[in-house]
Write a structure and sequence with these properties.
With about 100 residues, the protein is of the alpha+beta class. It has two domains: about 55 residues, 2-Layer Sandwich (Macrophage Migration Inhibitory Factor), CATH 3.30.429; about 45 residues, no CATH class. It is built from four helices and four strands, in the order H-E-H-E-E-E-H-H.
Length: about 100
């Protein structure tokens, strides 16, 4: 989009990692409306000018750190198969094979 119209009509695209799939429709609606209200307040624009889209991605639809993420339940094996240098890096971030989940 071009011009001032695009500035007045933000489009919020939220790529999610399975989190909203665990939520029912009413909970996802509440999440989207909350995002819309926050964008309106922060940007100082009317709520009816804001679009919010939830894109619910399966873990296997993503690549992180050079590896396709595992299916739910396969996190431990996935983590154990990572190169030692990456495991060390993730451990410094507070993630290890015991607490890594999707």
């Amino acid at each position: 989009m071009r011009g001032s119209w695009a500035v007045k009509r933000p489009w919020t695209l939220l790529d999610t990692r399975r989190y909203p799939r665990r939520k029912n429709e009413a909970q996802r609606e509440k999440l989207m409306l909350s995002i819309m209200k926050d964008v309106s307040r922060i940007a100082g624009i009317e709520e009816d000018s804001i679009w919010v889209y939830l894109c619910n991605l399966e873990p296997t639809d993503m690549v992180e750190y050079g590896h396709v993420l595992p299916k739910p339940g396969g996190e431990k094996a996935w983590f154990e198969g990572l190169p030692d240098s990456l495991k060390t890096y993730l451990a410094r971030l507070g993630t290890d094979d015991e607490n890594f989940t999707l």
